[in-house]
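Ticket #4471: structure export looks truncated?
Reporter: QA, pipeline team
Priority: medium

Steps to reproduce: submit the single chain below to the structure queue and open the exported record.
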Amino acid sequence: MKLMISIGIFLGGMLGGWIGALMTHNNWFSGWSILLSVVGSFVGIWAGYKFGQYISD
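Actual output as written to the record:
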């Protein structure tokens, strides 16, 4: 389960940061990029936890 949560944090943070960078014309250090990266990481934690539960059952 730890691996699934770690992958979720990585992918969610990267995807959120990428979307934020697209919104601000490739500025990876903008407020939107950082905020969406944090939100994506939390979503990744949740998704990784749920997926970990799914495969362990």
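Status: closed, not a bug. The export was complete when the record was re-opened. Leaving a note from the reviewer for reference: The chain has one domain: 2-56.
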